[in-house]
């Protein structure tokens, strides 16, 4: 089991996507099933989104939308009850007790593996402090491991370098464009994070890199306003740095060859 989280400001777009529709009401995928609806009266996406937006209206929180996708391995077939239990446990372990937060969960059927989308209003119903968002990646890893052990699910195998993970429909184009641009830059011997960033910028891709002591420690991207994490474009920061280091070594070796050839010729008296 694995989870990925996005934080946003608009419940309407998020909840409509969860329900399988555009904001205009056009169906965009096969039927999506509503599994959970805590602290909301409505059952249609427009009504649910309006209730959640209203709850957050008087809070200072500018990004009240918490959206996590939780996936199982293709060979695993969790029951409806197991998916509901997973979602409730996930919310509790994240600090969003379903008794105190508005929570809506949908099951999607657009991928070969079973997966659910969990929507949490970060603003609790009692108007208290908004749900913390720091260290989401590490928290997701830890909590999924705990739930996997508690409920007996298997872990999703780590994807190989260059392979694309499943992302939201609105991220698929950005995922593809960033993946192809990185591969092209590596093929052209890009050898530093700065060089990679410059090459991707020419393709209309914004990079957000965190570099420490010359090494890439974190990566994320944005294409046409759509953000996407480095791990979702086929290259984690660690994997990308390893490829850049390899290119740097190749470039250095190529630069040494003429010098070595000159020494050899001088040694032969040529």
Automatic annotation (TrEMBL):
Highest classification ranks of the organism: Bacteria, Pseudomonadati, Bacteroidota, Cytophagia, Cytophagales
Pfam families: Relaxase
Domain of life (superkingdom): Bacteria
Species of provenance: Dyadobacter flavalbus
Residue span of region Disordered: 248-270
Ranges where the MobA/VirD2-like nuclease domain occurs: 29-152
Biased composition (Basic and acidic residues): 253-262
Protein name: Relaxase/mobilization nuclease domain-containing protein
């Amino acid at each position: 089991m694995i989870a990925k989280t996005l934080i946003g400001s608009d419940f309407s777009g998020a909840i409509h996507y969860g329900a399988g529709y555009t904001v205009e009401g056009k169906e965009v995928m096969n039927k999506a099933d509503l599994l959970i609806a805590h602290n909301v009266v409505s059952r249609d996406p427009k009504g649910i989104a309006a209730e959640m937006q209203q709850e957050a209206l008087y809070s200072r929180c500018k990004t009240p939308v918490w959206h996590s996708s939780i996936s199982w391995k293709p060979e695993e077939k969790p029951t409806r009850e197991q998916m509901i239990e997973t979602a409730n446990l996930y919310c509790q372990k994240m600090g969003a007790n379903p008794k105190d937060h508005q929570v809506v969960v949908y099951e999607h059927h657009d991928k070969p593996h079973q997966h659910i989308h969990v929507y949490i209003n970060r603003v609790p119903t009692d108007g208290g402090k908004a749900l913390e968002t720091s260290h989401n990646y590490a928290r997701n890893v830890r909590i999924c491991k705990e739930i996997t052990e508690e409920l007996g699910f298997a872990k999703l195998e780590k994807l190989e370098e260059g392979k694309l993970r499943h992302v939201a429909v609105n991220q698929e184009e950005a995922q593809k464009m960033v993946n192809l641009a990185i591969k092209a830059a590596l093929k052209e011997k890009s050898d530093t994070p700065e060089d990679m960033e410059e090459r991707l910028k020419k393709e209309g891709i914004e990079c957000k890199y965190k570099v420490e002591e010359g090494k890439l420690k974190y990566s994320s991207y944005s294409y046409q306003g759509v953000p996407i994490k480095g791990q979702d474009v086929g290259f984690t920061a660690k994997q990308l740095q390893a490829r850049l280091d390899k290119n740097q070594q190749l470039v250095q070796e190529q630069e040494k060859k003429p010098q070595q050839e000159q020494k050899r010729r001088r040694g032969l008296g040529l």
